[in-house]
């Protein structure tokens, strides 16, 4: 925990209690309790006290009649209002959490049916900013600008009675493996009123994100929950197979668990086992959020997003936690990631496979088993003692498995003409092995790149027509091409057809915490730069988000160096 909180400049002590009563003369004691949430505490703290809603945020949004002005549709408190505040009123700083997207290297869809999958986190991430409001507000707001969702609920109106009923109540440590239909029904009126004026397809996106939030908020919080604004921005394309929904679920779960003090750390000297416990706790509730967004998830996406790195994942019995084997020596595979920009819903693609299985049980089961064998073969190779990812034979083996896995996914009916086109463009260059990743039906393709430039001269990409027979080799290319210039040419061809290439590194950190939302970027006043909601919303595009709050250090010399301030549970 930093000792340079901007709050100190505003007359607050070092701790960041989320529940310092205006009246309380015992704030020191409270602060110590609260600190254990994110510092050295190893025990789960006491539940919040009834005074929990007495939280003041640094950037209050006040009603217009107070003289507040509007910036970007946000109400900004005038300086006079800050000065009018009683100096003894404690303020709670905003904080942030972040979670990475993922690629499934082998085993998507089969993993929903109890087979194994291998997946790794990527450097694209979602960022959730939590701003505390004055206790008098009694509202909770979701501000998800990526999907233009902005919705506010009155905390007191929410169906707390249903969620806290003794027969229904779930606690932060519970394993919840299915959504409770009664609770979903109780929540429904509060979801149905979200973005009612939008067309059906957009409304569905808004309502699924809102339901993930509300189910977690109602399960983990209480009517005393602090009024807050939850602002989320992501650098992950939505519905592209990179686990965007899981990152939302992980961020919400982590933020809400931190708020009820059900997590300890993260801090650098936290024992790995204890870190694992915190990740597990976040992951369990993230899975609940995932269920709200896409119905029947295997849990692989949220597991990788919460824990980071790379894993072998298998959930044979949905009533039990999954088997998760960390792949500590997961190779830094030379990977190309291409987005079709064809959005689709994971729920729909998962349902397609379920329908196929119902119509052709034996054939579908055989296809799923074959995918399982692919994953197993890759796992055996990667974990063998003499595995060398730079050895051409090893890459060849992993590459062939990629090709086989894609073929099986095509047979399951979850590819898309645009994915096939990407594969065709890449196959013609001979630079690697390509498959769809994630749910398919659009979304992204991954290519494992070959170590050496191909010996044959590649075609000029412009001559590759959709029909293979029309493909011509451009003999004008006389110099032997390097992988580098083939990739450049390929990128141009992909862009010309509306596809998008991503740079990413694999197997980085999982969920991260920035508490308070202060970063030491080197160019700020003493104590760090406070990231308030307006700044976060104003950051332009993915680059702006990365520059302002990105977990990757801007001066990083090694791929996974993280920015000072962000903390992670590392196992
Ligand atoms: N940046 C975001 N802001 C708000 N909601 C988001 C965001 N990203 C994803 N979501 C939610 O997640 C849903 C997309 O989830 P879906 O599972 O279909 O795709 P994905 O997670 O990107 O892909 P896959 O599951 O194949 O990896 C959206 O409809 C939306 O509800
Ligand atoms: C298609 C699928 O296997 C992967 C989505 O990223 C669904 C899941 O595992 O939940």
CATH-assigned fold name of the domain at 95-324? Ribosomal Protein S5, domain 2
Beta-strand content bin: 15-25%
Using the coordinates above, name the CATH class of the domain at 95-324.
Answer: Alpha Beta
Report the strand count. Answer: 17
What structural category arises from helix and sheet content? alpha+beta
Low-pLDDT parts are 1-89, 466-477
Query: What best-fitting shape do the alpha-carbon axes yield?
Result: globular
Task: Estimate the helix proportion, in percent.
Answer: 25-40%
Counted by DSSP, the helix tally is 16
**In angstroms, what is the radius of gyration?**
25 Å
Query: What is the average of the pLDDT values?
Result: 82
Distance linking N and C termini = 19 Å
Largest sheet: 9 strands, mixed
Going by CATH, the architecture of the domain at 95-324 would be 2-Layer Sandwich
User: What hetero molecules are bound to the protein chains?
Assistant: adenosine-5'-triphosphate, (R)-mevalonate
Catalytic activity: (R)-mevalonate + ATP = (R)-5-phosphomevalonate + ADP + H(+)
Subcellular location: Cytoplasm
Organism: Lophium mytilinum
Domain GHMP kinase N-terminal: 229-304
């Amino acid at each position: 925990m930093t000792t340079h909180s901007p709050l100190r400049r505003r007359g607050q002590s070092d701790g960041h209690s989320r529940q310092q009563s205006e009246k309380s003369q015992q704030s020191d004691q409270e602060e110590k309790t609260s600190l254990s949430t994110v510092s050295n505490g190893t025990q789960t703290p006491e539940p919040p006290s009834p005074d929990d809603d007495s939280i003041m945020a640094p950037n209050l949004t006040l009603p217009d009649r107070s003289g507040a002005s509007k910036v970007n549709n946000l109400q900004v408190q005038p300086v006079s209002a800050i000065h009018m505040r009683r100096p003894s009123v404690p303020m709670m700083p905003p904080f942030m959490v972040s979670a990475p997207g993922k690629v499934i290297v082998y085993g998507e869809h089969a993993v929903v049916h109890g087979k194994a999958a291998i997946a790794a986190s990527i450097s694209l991430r979602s960022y959730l900013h939590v701003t505390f409001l004055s206790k008098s507000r009694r509202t909770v707001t979701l501000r998800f600008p990526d999907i233009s969702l902005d919705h506010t609920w009155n905390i007191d109106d929410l169906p707390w009675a249903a969620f806290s009923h003794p027969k229904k109540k779930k606690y932060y440590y519970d394993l919840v493996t299915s959504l409770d239909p009664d609770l979903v029904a109780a929540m429904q009126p509060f979801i149905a009123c979200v973005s009612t004026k939008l067309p059906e397809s957009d409304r569905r996106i808004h309502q699924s994100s809102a339901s993930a939030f509300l189910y977690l908020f109602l399960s983990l919080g209480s009517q005393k929950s602090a009024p807050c604004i939850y602002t989320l921005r992501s650098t992950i394309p939505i519905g592209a197979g990179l686990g965007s929904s899981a990152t939302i679920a992980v961020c919400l779960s982590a933020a809400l668990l931190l708020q009820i003090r059900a997590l300890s750390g993260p801090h650098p000297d936290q024992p790995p086992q204890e870190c694992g416990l915190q990740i597990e706790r976040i992951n369990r509730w993230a899975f609940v959020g995932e269920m709200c967004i896409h119905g029947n998830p295997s849990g692989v996406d949220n597991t990788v997003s919460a824990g980071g790195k790379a894993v072998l994942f298998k959930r044979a019995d949905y009533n039990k936690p999954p088997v998760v084997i960390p792949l500590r020596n997961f190779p830094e595979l030379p990977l190309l990631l291409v987005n079709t920009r064809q959005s689709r819903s994971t729920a729909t693609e998962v349902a397609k496979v379920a329908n196929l299985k119902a119509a052709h049980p034996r054939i579908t089961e055989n296809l799923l088993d074959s995918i399982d064998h692919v994953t197993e073969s890759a796992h055996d190779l990667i974990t063998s003692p003499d595995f060398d990812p730079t050895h051409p034979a090893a890459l060849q083996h992993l590459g062939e498995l990629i090709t086989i896995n894609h073929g099986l996914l095509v047979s399951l009916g979850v590819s898309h003409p645009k994915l096939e086109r990407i594969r065709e463009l890449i196959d013609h260059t001979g630079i690697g092995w390509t498959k769809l990743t994630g749910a398919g039906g659009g979304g992204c393709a991954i290519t494992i790149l070959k170590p050496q430039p191909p010996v044959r001269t590649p075609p000029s990409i412009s001559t590759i027509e959709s029909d293979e027979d029309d493909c011509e080799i451009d003999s004008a290319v006389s110099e032997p091409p390097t992988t580098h210039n083939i990739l450049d040419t390929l990128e141009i061809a992909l862009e010309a057809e509306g596809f998008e290439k991503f740079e990413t590194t694999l197997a980085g950190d999982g969920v991260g915490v920035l508490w308070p939302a202060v970063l030491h970027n080197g160019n700020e006043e003493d104590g760090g730069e406070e990231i308030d909601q307006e700044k976060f919303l104003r950051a332009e595009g993915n680059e702006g988000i990365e520059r302002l709050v990105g977990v990757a250090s801007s001066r990083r010399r090694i791929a996974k160096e993280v920015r000072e301030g962000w903390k992670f549970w590392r196992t």
